[in-house]
Amino acid sequence: MKKNPHNLEESFGSIVGRAGRAMANRLNQNFSSAGYDVTCEQWAVLNSLWKKNGQSQKELAGCTCKDKTSITRLIDGMQKRKLVFRTPDREDARQKFILLTGKGRTLRQKLLRQIEKTLQEAQKGVRTGDLRTCKDVLVRVTKNLTEGSRAD
Amino acid sequence: MKKNPHNLEESFGSIVGRAGRAMANRLNQNFSSAGYDVTCEQWAVLNSLWKKNGQSQKELAGCTCKDKTSITRLIDGMQKRKLVFRTPDREDARQKFILLTGKGRTLRQKLLRQIEKTLQEAQKGVRTGDLRTCKDVLVRVTKNLTEGSRAD
DNA sequence: CTGAAATGGTTGTTTATGCAACCATTTAGT
DNA sequence: ACTAAATGGTTGCATAAACAACCATTTCAG
Lengths: 152, 152
Prior knowledge:
The structure is a homodimer. The first copy, chain A, has six helices and three strands. By secondary structure, the first copy, chain A, is mainly α. Chain A has a three-stranded antiparallel beta sheet with strand order 1-3-2. In chain A, helix 1 (about 10-35) packs across helix 5 (about 100-125). Chains A and B meet through helix 1, helix 2, helix 5 and helix 6 of A and helix 1, helix 2, helix 3, helix 5 and helix 6 of B. Chain A binds a DNA duplex through helix 1 and helix 4.
């Protein structure tokens, strides 16, 4: 049985969306089958916190490219799972800082192994230079779409 | 104010996910502000049906890379919006064929204009060859993740 | 200082998504 | 033919996402 014969002129949007979903699904499966109760969306937030612990929800929204409401509820879930906790900012009572728990910090190495595995599965047979180009294009596209619209 | 200084070594998964979300959001905004009550996920299904009207839900799941349950509910929504309707297959009573309504068929040209617009916003400043490479990489990645479930 | 605007988070609502479990209908195995 | 397995769809459940409306707290204008 042949694949979709129309794939050749698929639009960029479809292609990016499909690849994103495929990667997210595989990553979730790999997390889950390795016994980690973490979703890839939560991982995106953790990723940010591993680089800089203690960010406001607004900052997290910015660097994950998510709406602030998504962050609110993502943090709710992560808090329930004891990965992070909220601390009010003493300087500005509107803000809350998100900090990793010990569990959240420790998870890093373990999850990284699954991420590596997933990336290897995904990137198999892709030339390094092409991968570089692909990343650059996607970063540029993201910038095009986020700087023009939501720059407070 | 500098951007995230760690961006350089952001993982491919994050980059793809962020770009996908950025594009989906922009597309939804463009659909909405042009007055169309259609989401980009529904568009993905429509896109498939415009190419080949009358597909089973399983087929649609395959070519949109979504779970069959997602398709079930996506179709529910699209049916409510009178974009498609279900017809039982007489050959095999398990299957249902999804067909475009007149409205679903007519929408094509209108939506295409918004899609074009969105793509132009997204691809601004990206060299054509690089875009080509990017698409090819993403298609390959998707194939890696959906065909060979096992690492070899 | 005081009221208005901006800012950071939360809540309500709608849509989307995947997994597991299930049902109904083929299709196979014997 | 008749049970067992595979297949296509649906439902229950939990997570995720964005928009609008809202609240509390700055910040700004006068």
